[in-house]
């Protein structure tokens, strides 16, 4: 069988996804496409997202029709060059069905389990995916989020290199002790995690508050940071949407949480009930409200960002890029535009404060290309 | 996340709260479990197995075995609550509330009001409800509608282990008397339950599934039967929105009304008898506040207005079944204006 015949399978987005529903195909059977083109839309209880072409090819066979709900790993379509005969496509589909889904699913579920480390007496949860020769990637989420914010980013980056996502103190599955909740405390935790996980040199990617933390790590430990990608990052100006911060800290009910989470997206309809339920389940845990309140007070007191990292970021020795959603309603895109004369800035249309979710494919490509170019330059 | 049964979830909630707050005490029949047996002071953990391990960890001053006298349990608990402790009292079968209702209904529920808001009564009464074990008419009822009807009482009817733990911790931390109704057939039902303590606010319904065709409101064990019915109907192209109110007092009216305003159709499923019931209450709520949105009559699926039969065949007929629920939803869905 030709190696050029490849499968498009049901992806696994996030820790809890077990199946997805094909919303519709954006390419017809027989249609050619380039790498990165949108092929189909998949809906999970959490979110709807598009599957993009991992490489150029022809959509030779659509196996799963719109409306079909299938487990992760299930065959959705077959991609192959035009010259591959139909019989070979048939054989590929038939051969694919032979795979025992139960064992592969279990193995997959085992592989994506988050684990705990202890850093300076605090439990930190992390998710470690992928392997490769180059420096690994460390992903640092923003205020109120957890490793699941990288549900589209991490699996994609992990196909080429080790990619670790961390739950910050007070967040996700990590301990809820945040000390004073300030940048020092959270940055210490990330640095400690680098030590404990034996990540000597990493490509850092930080989102929002996690961006500021990543920038601080890069500034304090430049020898450990090969590159820095800041997504909708804090620390680049005083403005911050306090109705989001206060609303997120205060929300205990579905209605409030839905409204607040809507502010994160360019398209608030992307906020599913399951996503809201996840946030509420996290917020209901003892210690979370006070941890978030402390962090909010330390970082965003009086409706302004207390941390200005513009000088420190300008002085960084490693390559830095900024990624921002043009429609960001939490931290204005003007913060990125203001530094565009001395830093590479990628602004994505039709994306809000979570471009890595709303424009997942583009953000993955930007990170991948950036890391690739850095690796070539410095030979890491 | 670890899977835990409702029994484990409740046990964990009690143990974690008792560790946090030394004023919390557990009182009831056999809650220490086998305390009368030589050499076995914590053999079983109560007739339900929910309090297992508490006696060993917290001792006899905080895990109090009582004689078979519900009036004394509730009287002692109400008095302790109003004088500074936070008792979790166990009324083994909710059917027995009759002998101790003065202490609950006319004392505990009234203290805050009678003392001009100066008294608080942080009392939780855990009690077992439900038919389905051939326990006959005096041990199988679901009288949460009676508790719900009393101003000053809060009433909780969890349907799964996640909610059970969060709602019990919320009940223990609440400063008013709370009746916590556990269905006797659901103790082994498992769900993902965090190891950490957490609270679920009262008066916030859970939307078990989304749908645009028919709103279904169900309580306690009926949530699972209604969900089965909704699975069947989904294959027929009828999408149900299933709402579990979780607490009947306070009741999350907004979630029910908003759903009916979208679907225009409502079926309420309740294992209790139909007269003056939660099903009837919710039907009245929707008739009152969402009449203009209704496209079909509101229907209730409940037990009949009879005692719970002992004979297994009759008991099975008595309890609303997934088939009966599905048939009623179909009827409401197919109703032409």
Defining traits:
heterodimer, A: 380 residues, alpha/beta, OB fold (Dihydrolipoamide Acetyltransferase, E2P), Rossmann fold, eight-stranded mixed sheet, four-stranded antiparallel sheet, 13 helices, B: 337 residues, 2 domains, seven-stranded mixed sheet, five-stranded mixed sheet, 12 helices, globular
Whole-number tally of structural domains of chain A: 2
Largest sheet of chain A: 8 strands, mixed
Number of helices, where a helix is a run of at least 4 consecutive DSSP H or I residues of chain B: 12
What is the annotated CATH architecture of the largest domain in chain B?
3-Layer(aba) Sandwich
Q: Biggest sheet of chain A, strands in spatial order?
A: 9-10-12-11-13-14-15-16
Q: Average the pLDDT over all residues of chain A and give the rounded result.
A: 91
Helical content band of chain B: 25-40%
Class from secondary-structure proportions of chain B? alpha/beta
Fourth-level CATH superfamily of the largest domain in chain B: Thiamin diphosphate (ThDP)-binding fold, Pyr/PP domains
CATH fold name of the largest domain in chain A: Rossmann fold
């Amino acid at each position: 069988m030709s190696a050029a015949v490849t499968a498009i399978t049901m992806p696994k987005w996030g820790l809890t996804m077990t199946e997805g529903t094909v919303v519709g195909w954006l390419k017809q059977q027989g249609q050619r496409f380039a790498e990165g083109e949108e092929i189909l839309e998949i809906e999970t209880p959490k979110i709807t997202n598009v599957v993009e072409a991992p490489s150029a090819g022809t959509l030779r066979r659509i196996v799963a029709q719109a409306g079909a709900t299938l487990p992760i790993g299930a065959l959705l379509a077959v991609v192959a060059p035009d010259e591959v005969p139909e019989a070979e496509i048939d054989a590929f589909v038939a051969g694919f069905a032979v795979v025992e889904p139960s064992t592969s699913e279990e193995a997959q579920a085992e592989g994506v389990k988050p684990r705990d480390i202890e850093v300076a007496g605090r439990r930190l949860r992390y998710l470690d995916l992928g392997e490769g020769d180059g420096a690994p990637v460390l992903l640092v989420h923003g205020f109120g989020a957890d490793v699941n914010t990288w549900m589209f980013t991490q699996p994609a980056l992990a196909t080429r290199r080790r990619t670790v996502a961390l739950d910050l103190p007070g967040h996700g599955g990590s301990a809820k002790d945040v000390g004073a909740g300030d940048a020092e405390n959270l940055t210490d935790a990330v640095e400690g995690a680098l030590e404990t996980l034996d990540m000597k040199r990493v490509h850092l990617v930080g989102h929002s508050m996690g961006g500021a933390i990543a920038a601080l790590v890069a500034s304090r430990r430049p020898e450990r940071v090969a590159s820095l990608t800041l997504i909708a990052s804090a620390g680049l100006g005083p403005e911050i949407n306090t109705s989001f911060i206060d609303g997120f800290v205060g929300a205990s009910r579905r209605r409030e949480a839905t409204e607040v989470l809507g502010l994160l997206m360019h398209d608030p309809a992307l906020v599913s009930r399951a996503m809201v339920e996840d946030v509420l389940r996290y917020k209901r845990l003892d210690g979370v409200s006070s941890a978030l309140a402390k962090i909010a007070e330390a970082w965003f007191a009086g409706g302004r960002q207390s941390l200005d990292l513009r000088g420190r970021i300008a002085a960084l020795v490693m390559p830095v890029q900024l990624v921002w959603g043009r429609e960001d309603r939490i931290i204005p895109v003007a913060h990125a535009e203001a530094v565009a004369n001395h830093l590479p800035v990628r602004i994505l249309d039709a994306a809000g404060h979570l471009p890595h979710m709303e424009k997942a494919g583009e953000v993955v490509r930007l990170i991948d290309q950036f890391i690739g170019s850095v690796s070539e330059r410095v030979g890491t | 996340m670890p899977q835990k049964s409702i029994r484990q979830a409740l046990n964990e909630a009690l143990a974690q709260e008792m560790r946090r707050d030394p004023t919390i005490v557990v009182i009831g029949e056999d809650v220490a479990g086998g305390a009368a047996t030589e050499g076995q002071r914590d053999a079983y953990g109560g007739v339900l197995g929910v309090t297992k391990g508490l006696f060993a960890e917290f001792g006899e001053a905080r895990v109090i075995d009582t004689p078979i006298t519900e009036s004394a349990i509730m009287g002692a608990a109400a008095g302790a609550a109003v004088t500074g402790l936070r008792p979790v009292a166990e009324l083994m079968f909710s059917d027995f509330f009759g002998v101790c209702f003065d202490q609950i209904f006319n004392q505990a529920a009234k203290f805050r009001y009678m003392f001009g808001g100066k008294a608080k009564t942080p009392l939780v009464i855990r009690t077992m409800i439900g038919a389905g074990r051939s326990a006959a008419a005096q041990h199988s009822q679901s009288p949460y509608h009676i508790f719900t009807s009393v101003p000053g009482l809060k009433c909780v009817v969890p349907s799964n282990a996640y909610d059970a733990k969060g709602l019990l911790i919320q009940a223990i931390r609440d400063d008013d008397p709370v009746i916590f109704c556990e269905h006797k057939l659901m103790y082994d039902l498992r769900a993902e339950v965090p190891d950490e303590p957490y609270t679920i606010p009262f008066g916030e319904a859970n939307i078990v599934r989304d749908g645009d065709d028919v709103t279904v409101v169900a309580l306690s064990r009926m949530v699972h039967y209604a969900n089965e019915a909704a699975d069947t109907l989904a294959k027929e192209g009828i999408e149900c929105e299933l709402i579990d109110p979780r607490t009947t007092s306070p009741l999350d009216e907004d979630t029910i009304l908003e759903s009916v305003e979208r679907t225009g159709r409502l079926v309420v499923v309740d294992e209790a008898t139909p007269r003056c019931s939660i099903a009837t209450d919710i039907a009245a709520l929707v008739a009152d506040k969402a009449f203009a949105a209704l496209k079909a009559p509101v229907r209730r699926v409940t037990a009949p207005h009879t005692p719970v039969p002992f004979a297994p065949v009759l008991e099975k007929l008595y309890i609303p079944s997934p088939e009966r629920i599905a048939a009623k939803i179909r009827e409401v869905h197919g109703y032409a204006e």
